[in-house]
Structures
1.
Amino acid sequence: METVTQTIQGVPLNHYIILSAVIFSIGVMGVLIRRNAIVIFMSVELMLNAVNLLLTAFSAYRGDPAGQVFVFFIMALAAAEVAVGLAIIVMIYRNTNSTDINVLNRLKW
Amino acid sequence: MNLFYLIAFLSVFFSLLVIFSKNPVYSVLYLIITFFTFTIHYVLLNAQFLAIVNFIVYMGAIMVLFLFVLMLLNLNKDSEPLKSNIVKIAGVVAGMCLLVTLAGSVKALNVSDPLVLKNPDIGLVQNLGKVLFKDFLLPFEVSSILLLAAMVGAVLLAKKDPKKV
Amino acid sequence: MSAINLVWLVPLFPLIGFLINGFGRNVLPKSIVGLVGCLSVLLSFGLSTAIFFELEKSGATAYYVPLFNWIQTGSLSIPFSFQVDHLSSLMLLIVTGIGFLIHVYSIGYMHHDKGYAKFFSYLNLFVFFMLLLVLGSNYVVLFIGWEGVGLCSYLLIGFWYKNSSYASAAKKAFVMNRIGDLGFLIAIFVIFRIFGSIEFGEVFTKAAEMKVGSPVMVLITMLLFVGATGKSAQIPLFTWLPDAMAGPTPVSALIHAATMVTAGIYMIARSNVLFMLAPLTMNVIAIVGLATAILAATIAITQTDIKKVLAYSTVSQLGYMFLGLGVGAYTGAFFHVITHAFFKALLFLGAGSVIHAMSNEQDMRLMGGLRKKLPVTFITMLAGTIAISGIPPFSGFFSKDEILANAYEHNKIFWVIGVIGAVFTAFYMFRMMFLTFYGKFRGTHEQEHHVHESPATMTIPLIVLAVLSIFGGFIGVPEVLGGKHWLSHYLAPVFTNKAAGHEVHHLDHNTEYMLMTISVLGAVIAAIVAYVRYTKKHHVPVPDHASRGFLGNLSYHKYYIDEVYDVLITRPLNALSGLFYKIIDKAIIDGIVNGLGKATGLAGKGLRLVQTGNIGFYIFMMVAGVIALLFYSFYKI
């Protein structure tokens, strides 16, 4: 374990931020270009994880455990969100026989 | 140190595969690999508790749920009608713009100190547990209510409409 | 426990009666309703009598009975308190005494009416407010009573509210009273501004230091007088009183003849200290009173409705009282209030008895020859008529004579016009008597068959009032006729120094004899003329549409004053309201409000097109927004 922790030493914080930004942006792109509701949902998970990683990095950087606790809470939240979100998708599929979000355009006017 | 950049490259690579593979089942599998790279990141940061939780909750529970739903709805075929190219290009451009803006922001903030684990023990289960059950006891308990509500909501939403049967 | 300390019970009894009858009006049987109504006023009357005697025995000028501190804010302090002095104790006797008689009368008169309990509850409420008005020790309590009697007047005029003309008469009375009330209210504000208090005692003490004829006193007294013209039906606000005859006859007797309409005179008499400081206002009061007296008398001559005759007679008599106030004869004016309360209540109740007998017929052209069938009513009404005509030794003679003598001393022209009015009074009153009770019956057969004397509950009050009308004048027999004028001595503490100085004594006895002889002779001649015209020649007033000649028409149509008001005030006001309604309200205010609503609607109609329902588009816009925000915050474009 000692060696593992040694490995990380010297990586600038900036690189963590940029990594998270890249993955977050990939998540956003996924949301924008896909039409399958489940894939969009996965892209959202990707974004959430990018944030998690960043929070953990900050936590380690500042030596403050609160950041990691937040990550823990975000995970609990994500679990709840996925359960409800997938339930909604299942119901939508049952009603429209599709998970294409372009079909779901009744939410207007 | 080089390990971090390798893992980071894998993370980006697999997350790109997630959004660009046409079959949703492949997407899920790539996503699992992406999450696994995240677990390694956590281990590197010595956040052992989070690494375990991420492994169990994300890769275990959530991903299984995704796969389960995909199989249930029989969406494993490559049936998704693709968006027009213009929309795709617009989406990619927007994502890139966001990336550039974020990167620019980081530059503007000018924080480039190397990461030093001042207190490598904070991520251990023992220490995190103390913080969680002392300072964050109430939010922790409240989150249980959230999970309960989500459970009830999921059951209610997903069950078959009795009238339609 | 002396009776004076219990004075708060006097208004309380009628209030309790009102509450019992008001809440139990659908439950209580008629006998109990009548009993409660009469008993509550009788108890007040008994207590008032005790207070009256105790006050006279004690020799004190006034008692101040505080009840509770009502409004206390800053320098403004308004206690809810009563003042018992000679003026208010006399008014107490009149209000409760005549009120009781009229309550008893109403038992018989209203017996067939569906709103029996409602009527009694309103009547009790009226007595309560009237007692509050009389007893209040400051202008605000007086004003509460003042408004309260106005309210009861409105309720009782519109008692048969299903008839729309009655309801509009009630509204007319209310609105015209409001005009006067506004003046009174402003007067109270000014009084508080000038004197820093609205308690009678303090105000009068401070006012005594003011200069005679100072503008502010003229302002206050003129505003008070405006209030009095509204309540006491003087020019220009008198037209509501004749219309107020739409109410049941006991109401006309109690409210619109004996008590409420004299509230204005009471208020001015109460504030005599202020009025003595404003000679200009006094002159205005005298002239307005005289003009009202003569105008109403000339209208009464041609009226055919028995109650309208009495109503104009009331307006005319009130004019005499104001003439008395205006020339400084407060005692005389108040004396006339008392005697007028007796004989006018009597006349109204008699008229009510006639109407009752005639199955609600009020037109004198359809009456006649009722003398034999209604003997009690006839005799009592005759007593009232002689009293109002001013023929000695009936009560009206003494009071009217005192006013006229004071007027003569003040200005001889006032006296001449006053006597002419008195002659008119005698003429139209005897005309009414002869048309109603002499000659042949002119109504339908059914009515003739139905005619009967009223029950004892109605005749007994008539007899009591007739006795009072005959002998009531003896409380104020002037010295010239060998009397002591008990009333002027009794009221002397209230009408202080300057006012008391204006006694009849200044005239020498020969002049007084002459004045009396002239007015009595005039009245007798007028009575004889009426007898000849309406009994010997069997003259009956022509139907509504027939021509009467110019003067006759003018009088019959009340000088077209209602029509003139309609053209001069009502129509311009309506036109102005219409203008405000159409242009300012409809076009401008509604335009702005509706325009805002429409603009919002249109904007929504345009903007909703942005909501395509395409989630991808939403997310795209969201990302664009995030980029824009970040760009803005980090690069500060």
2.
Amino acid sequence: MKPKQNQHPLKYSIYSLIAVVAAMIFFFPIYWAFSTSLRNPLDTFTVSGFGIPFLNFEPTLTNWVDQLATEEARKAVYNSTVIAVFASILALALGIPAAYALARFRFKTISNKDLTIWFLSQRVLPPVATVVPFYLIMQFLNLLDTQLALILINATFVLPFVVVIVRQTFLDLPIELEEAAFMDGARNYGAFLRVALPLAAPAIAATGLIMFAFTWNEFLFAITLSSKEVITIPIHMAGAVDTRGVQFWFMAVRAMIAMIPPVLIALLAQRYIVQGLTLGAVKG
Amino acid sequence: MAEVKLRGVKKSFDEVEVIHGVDLEIKDQEFVVFVGPSGCGKSTLLRMIAGLEDITAGEIYIGDTYVNDLHPADRGAAMVFQSYALYPHMSVRENIGFGLKLNKVPKAEIQRKVDEAAKILKIEELLDRRPAQLSGGQRQRVAIGRTIVREPSVFLFDEPLSNLDAALRVQMRMELEKLHANLNTTMIYVTHDQVEAMTMADRIFILNDGYVEQVGTPLELYRRPANIFVAGFIGSPKMNFLSVKVLEINGQQITLQLPGEDQMQLHRENINFRVGDILTLGIRPEHFELEQSKECFLSATVDMIERLGNETYIYANDASDNLLTVVGDGELDVSSKEKIKIHFTTDHCHLFGRDDQSIQ
């Protein structure tokens, strides 16, 4: 980061200092979990100083090796990945056309505004209120303890977000671009697929990423609709609590495993998310 | 190539009617300009021809085809938007060739047509750039290129030059005229700039509040405006309007009381007013003179002077405190607060009745 040209160096230093302190406060729990994951269980509460590896304690990979060796942990990562990826894709596949329709067509029987609010209202109901009905539905469909059940339910719950966020993205695109496509001989589908969709792609990628994180973190339905086969990472993390209390060393490893994929994807996709593709479309 | 016909076309947004039954006929290969102040409905009318707005009532024909219910893609028209509306995720080449690609034209053919259009518009070296890397004038050319390659039967322009600086605007104006001469296609051009209208149009349609006020060649509109609106809209600086009282009607000879003491006589065939009526007299600033050579005059006091080099604008108040504009030559010897006499001939006077319509 470079200081802005007309900013006083002292002012800049103070702002930077505040930013660094704030970042340290926010990152400390993550750092602590990481540090804990590298400690011998005996060192968990007795470590001195800031728990810096090599300085305050002798780090060990035992916890990681023990955890990753278990069938359960690998299954949790696999299940969570499959469910989060497919639920996000399903929600995007259903949500994007709905969002486009709400942004560009005028519905007569029910107004566009009412339809949008109806989509959003799906999120007003606390999810816990729907647990029993969903359990019964899944039981009826013979889908209890399957990935498909969690994919369907997670997609249902993130769909309103997709519709509302992506609709706004389409609304922000200059409508002349699609009109120009019409004049160039495109039908509604052509204008959508060849013009609107590519331009909305960065926002759609960002939305997909947020939906992935939501689904990845989902706990309530994962614990009620699955029993043995389809354990996800949040459930696996909660499993670090047993009759001897919380096993902080395992909890720390599991928390790290839970965090790595979303953070990694966010870092990789950052370029696309930040990129403003509409630049230069209409007058500068 | 095609003619365009509108029959009783109306447009309402919700309850508000913005176009009130427009009938017009545009001939094949004609360059027609829709001109009018902001909000007069000119862009809406163009978008209705393009198919981008629904038609509330009436019929639109392009060529012999009734196009009311046709998708914009099927009307055979191409349009240049005010904002250019270039696809930002495509190169210039892809932008220009997009319409051809949609119509499944073979690649080699697209390449050839794009190169040809680029040559006409002198943008050959820009073909691999993205719109964001182009200047305003270059974007404008690309937008025009996109319409040329489709070989449309009608070109539609929606204020295409309004985002360009003055010098570039003059240049593009001339290039559009050349383009029209080369392509020989019907062109409909929307602008609020009467200079663009006057210089480019074969015929001008003047719109105001959703009505067509007058249709004619540029000089017809300048010389014989049908009403006060057209008289005030065409010409720059604006026409001067004076309230005059009818003193005497003698056959077709009428005597009018000018502001101040002077009187004047005019010859009119359609006498639809009476002695004592207040009418409006219109005289263009360029038809006023300060030399004492003309039949009629007005006494006035100079308020402000603008010197443009080649000509001088004098703003002066007459006896009734109307602000008059006079255009004189650049060397005009006049100073502020000076009392002047403004002379004019009856040939250059326009007379408007109480209904704002011209009295011939």
